[in-house]
Batch of 4 targets.
Target 1
Amino acid sequence: MQKLISLKIDEFMRWDWAQIEPHYQALAAQPIAKTNVESWLKDWTRLSKLLRETHQRLWVASTVDTTDEQAQQRYTDFLDNIYPQAQAAEQRLKEKLLASGLEPEGFEVPLRNMRLEAELFCEANLPLLSEELKLATEYDKIIGAQTVEWQGKEVTLIQLHPVYLDPDRSLRERAWRLASARQLADQQAINDLWVKLLAIRRQLAANVNLPDYRAYRWRQLLRFDYTPEDCKQFHRVIEAVVVPAARRLYARRRRLLGLGALRPWDVHVDVHGRPPLKPFATIAELEEKTAAIFERVDPELGNYFKIMRQERLLDLDNRKGKAPGGYCTDFPDSSRPFIFCNSVGVHDDVQTLIHEGGHAFHVFESSRLPYAQQMHVPLEFAEVASMGMEFLASPYLSAGQDGFYTPAEAAQARVEHMEQSLLFWPYMAVVDAFQHWVYENAEAASDPANCDAQWAELWDRFMTGVDWSGLEQEKMTGWQRKLHIHEDPFYYVEYGLALLGAAQVWRNALKDQGAATAAYRRALALGGTATLPQLYAAAGARFAFDAGTLEEIATLMERTISELE
């Protein structure tokens, strides 16, 4: 293992499996006892971090330019020739530690996770998991290639988003219909991809003798603290508590816009006829003003973001060929995060960067933990880090010359954030309930037409207040455009649970911003060494999805909207 100590990531990324494998073999052959388990774990950590960073850097390269065939090929080669073997080697080391009976300090939760991963591990699934990741890259390529001609220029569909804020309703409708037509042109390609994905996922579950993919994915996501039935109960609570609040927001919007019916192209434009918020003109300005906000939230967080700017760990602009969405990932050997966005000059870009900044701060804070195995953070809390930062940053949107807005514009932005938060829960319920249906009815879901019908049914149940008449095809194919369904199955309820946790952090910040921020940072520093309820408690919140907690927060949001207006 001596060679790994001084090895740079750039050199490791050139290694093939024949060079990597002996290091795993040495760790597997080395006896471990109480006297040497810490040094053994440090060696394993170094190897695991090098491997994960290689994986993440190759994946990032495939997303920043989906047309780069060389980057795509390097990622594919890794998935074919290194990823499955490394997963198997990692599993042997987990089993070795479990068999030793040793419980190093701070390993209670990681060991619990390893036991479940040991149960789930199956050699036959390794090539299937690689294939699943490759199909996700295919989905990115389909979406990344979607462009239209608008006012004489070829633009991506994301670059049309500012038009949806234009007071000219006919212009909004024309842009919306143009984008929808382009998306529908790929309907068959996404359907074909879906059938392949579903077959792989069903086989993953069958190979480990589980009744369905949901049972497999629940274990794969290490969900210990809630069940599928809890999710369905959360859907029902959202239907009872939030759907009526959302209906009130839509009715108010329709009334203020003076419309007989609210249509899909009417849901983003300002209801008072104010021009769209234009928070920045250049990516440099977006970075500078976001840096100033983070500095005000907490100087150390501001320093983290400064490091990211200096080390070019941000890719924020939108361009043709770039994968959709936004994300923050980690380069664990370098103890650094990387943020990817598709910014086009609207307020949502500010929110996205602040959101991903919360994830980045989580990477910085938890990287101080000594072992890689302690850094697996439950997604349900990882999203508290990001959504919580949106709330903690909101008072500083208009911080003088360094801010994005005037005080009046900042109030407008905060209203938009509150409305989006409230309206998100019903949409989350659609996405999550759809996935429960898919994997409870996998045979039926293998026919995309049945998926269309189920999505439309759920949309009508939760998304009331907007008139989709005459747009049935666009409505029912919405599941095709939700990236998580295709690339990160079942990863969506986390946003709904975490929004409730983050809103509790915000509730605390309304009383004492400094104390709420300090608790938030302490919770982030725990990484994956605490259970989900413990992480929420450390942040000053309660892990819950009951009607009482949701109603308290929804009422606070509605009241805040009224006060800011």
Target 2
Amino acid sequence: MNGSWLLSFVGMILGATHGSQGKEDTLFQEQLSRDILELDGPWREIQSYCASRVLPLPKVSTLQEWETFAVKTRERILDEIIFAGEASLWRDLPLRVEWLDTLEGGGGYRIRKLRYEAVPGLWIPALLYEPEILEGKVPAVLNLNGHDPNGKSADYKQIRCINQAKRGMLALNTEWVGMGQLQGSGYSHYKMNQLDLCGTSGQGVFFLNAQRGLDLLLSLEHTDPQRVAVTGLSGGGCQTIQLSSLDTRVRMANPVAGYSSFITRVQHTKDLGDSEQTPTDLATLADYTHLTAMMAPRPLLLTYNAKDDCCFEAGYALPPLVEAAQAIYDLYGEKNRLHMHINHNPGTHNYLLDNRQAFYHMLGRAFFDRDEPFDGKEIPCEQEVRDFETLKVPLPEGNADFHSLALELAKDLPRGNPFPQSLQDLETWQQERRTELESLVRYKDMHVKAKAVETIHIEEMDVCHWKLMFDSSWTVPVVEFSRKDAKSTVVLVKDQGRASAVNEVRFHLQSAGQVVVVDPFYFGESRISQRDFLYALALSCVGDRPVGLQASQIAAVCRWARKSSAHKNVRLVGHGQRASFACLVATALETESIQELILHQSLGSLAEVIEQDWSVDKEPSFFCFGLLERFDLTHLACLVSPRSLSFQDSSDRLKKEMAPLRALFENLSLD
């Protein structure tokens, strides 16, 4: 009897406790899930932010001023963007070409199969269409292709090359990384950023893919170096303007539906390009308006489609480019060398008959004597188009790709950044490393303006919803839970966003008394509603870094929380790989306002991003250019010392990596 009564009593107590906790969790969930930001607010903010940071075209009044600018800009883009890191060695390697078998054409030309090495270990399959009879010097065309899985076997590209050969020209049809024969996971364009993380430009692979083709054409006996053209559709059009504006050996260019200004791109989401179209920091040196103008005074045909269903629609994409370029062509007195063609039939994303014939006419104007008739009408050759297998070019076994190149680069990283050997050396080491880290992640000491949206008093707790505005550019949502007996403040960030943080809020509220839950850039409610990772790429292109922005915002929240509270004791907690990474960077750089850092489910090493073959479209914040070249998580942890750092739910890899820090770091725990 007494035993039964005791069991019943305990059951009543547990049931009441469970019911109380359930009620409290419902309250937490309601408050954490409530929208604070305006609909699409983060999307509009990043559009405005990126557009405002695109470098404008310089105001020049003389040809000398322009040429000084153009020469310096070409040099800086090549040195600082295209050929950064190991790519600076790739650019100087000799051209390697292997000629294979020959296919007979349909009359008057032949097709020679070949492969050339773009970067060490990465061979590009290609086809050279050449006239059967070659005498003297003739025009040559580098034919690039875009995002077409058929690659070099695309029928519209074959027809274009055949027509060039039938007109007595040399036509090189190259494969593009990720397309045609070079399809596969390791060639995905979003894997290029694995090289960026290692401090080597992934863009350099794309650029050398095209530039080695140009080198090859110019090496041929019958190529007239004064009559070399480049053309391509879509991604091939983007490659065309990148290569042609930066390599003046190109004498004429025709990008087709290939690009728009960075300002246009962030305003028209369908124009946002892949990694190779928005390389890190390019917009800090030049917009695509600059690249277009840098073609002057060489002949340029800008082809766009009136109803483009993919990207770069003529009505909005073309005018800013023409306006920028026309002024520079006028300075040269060569306004008639800048041409535009808008396709209306079919008007969609294409390089079909109308656009091809516009290119043939442009070749006639640029490369042939105007006193001699040049027929720009297409020569019918549909029956001469070959299938994919027939045009296949043998490639070496184990041909390199972005992933294999990155694995090779990462083997010896980080480099040149040894740990301090003693506690006496630690402070000096930290000062030097913080300066370097701030530069790498583009950290900013942000000013916070807080606006209370709503405050609710529930029993012994206040719940306040805040908008925190940073430097008049970014707005971040915060939910603050406070009890009167608060002893410390926990600032909480979670991968899945604050709406999923009920358990964490309950736990930390019991121990600390005050919990500030924040969704920094790319988390929770601050996630970009449309094409999110492409805007993250755009952010890097204009000179910022996603993880740097996240860390700057988190650090600013911690400063605000410390200043606002009576106890001044702030603990930062990150849940998940992304949150842990951003919080670790924030704590490494914010030395005053964060007394303790607790991380859950952290990566063991930044090298895992490459080892596990991640791509930037899935986790853009991890691909900070050059970070792994100089820092791993262990180095960031050293910057937290002597404050307390705890890795919860840590992997064996993390425990192994952190073990050498024990002697330097008394307040390091690995659970």
Target 3
Amino acid sequence: MMRSFTTSPDVQLRFTDKEHFFHDLAQLLRSGIPLQRALEHIGTGRDRAAGASRSLAPLVSNGMSSAFASVGFASLDVEILAAGEQSGRMETACTRLSEYYGQLAACRRRILKTSAYPVFMFHLATLLLLIPAAITSGGVSGYFRHLALILGGVYALVGLGFLTVCLARWAVRTNPAAERAICLIPVVGGFFSLGALSRFCLVLSLGIRSADGVMASIQRAGRASLSAGLEAASLGLVTTIRQGSRFAEAVRQSKAFPPDLERGLEVAEASGRLDEETSRWAGIYQERFFSRIDALGVWIPRILFIIVMLLIGVALVLSVKQSYSQVFQLLEAE
């Protein structure tokens, strides 16, 4: 059963905030400072991470996982930290989270930076190309009416796209059948599946030798994957293993994982290096996942630029057509 987490709306950390928070926490833990004292050290600052640390420090003595969940950290963070705590590798878990959020922050910056110019050009073109039409039909009021219609339509499409992505993420997390359908979509499907596999392998690598056992680690990895299919598969793995199958054999029987990962786990279990191999595959899938995001960052500006050029072309055609129409009307009037 999926663990439920309560969140607090007053702690909202950005990717960059989490990157620095988990980096600082890993450094302090690596030096031998206990978790509560480490949080108190970070809490002396004035940024958002310091605010989160001040909220966390008095709560961790009652349970690390519940403390992080209660102040608004994502379920992925909580599961990775729980795996690190149970395996005695909290500093490693924090380091991996810092790297993960650092890469997300870098990808977001690149996408915003490369998208800024075409977005600016679209707004500038819209503002300028509506001037001739406004002069000939409606003046200032007509200008702003046409501007509101065009920009409102574009913003509505952007909002619809964002809503679609949110619904897709929700479906991937809650419905295995919907997830399978989404994963069949070119590019989009790979984006979701690679992210889920990277999270699954990362948590499993941290917790495979944890104090609460392999079974708990598998289930934790399933929850952390944020994939309904992998979460269901993790429960199936636990059942199959309890019936006497080996881990790699259970993975192969589930048919929920890529063949190359199945082969790697088979070799790793035979060699006694399952934690190292799952960590390696976590890195492989994470690299592929962020490569997809980088590709998205390359194509979004190009698509926006094409849209801008098409809009400019349409606006010019309409403007010329309207001008000819008015010229013909004047000639007929004479």
Target 4
Amino acid sequence: MIDSYLAFSGLFHMNSGKGYVYDLCSCRKEAMDALLKAYPSIPGVFGRMTSFFTDFSHRLDGIEVGDEGLLYKLLLAVSFMRTHVCACEHIFNSESIESATLLRKQLELIARMKEVDVNQLSTLFGRVPNVSNVRPMNVLYGVLSKIAHNADVESLDMLGFRMEDEMHKHFCLYPVYNENTIFSFGIAIGLFLMFVVEAIHLQKGIIPGYDVQADGDAVIDFLQFGKSSNIPFLNKIEV
């Protein structure tokens, strides 16, 4: 077993003399710069995500919803969009524990959106959403929960570390880019695509004359752009 300990060096601008928040922001920028150097298409992918959120929210502006189930699902959609931007910001900063905690929440939210369609609301309130219905992303729930709950020392490896030798780790006081970053972004992409399905279904229920074509075109553009990127999750999707 590796003997882990904290060794805070000056490698990540630990001693700027300007305080913790300044150093944190500096290291976030370094982490983001490293991510964008490795995956320059990320702004295009994220921009397409937020463009979908923009179009979706514009269509819903001023819509009156009388059905309690549809209203609940609409509010869940609003929560998903807000949280997803926050989760992606943490990912871009290589703050993997923070992003994993929010992605776990997103997975549960998608599960609840699906449950609203087939269950009485009274049977859902007070219960944790059943993520087994969110395939194939549900297989990640255990891992995300372990990280969110700080279940063991190994889950805190997501803080980021470098091996000094075979027996010792140097944990990072501030975020640093690592392989967990792009893996987390892949999870965010998968959850976004599942949200799109739920958002289309929701709009059919509350927007008179809703035409799915625009959203369908947006998804095709998203996937085609992603296919031409070097982002592992999107490379695996057939368009």
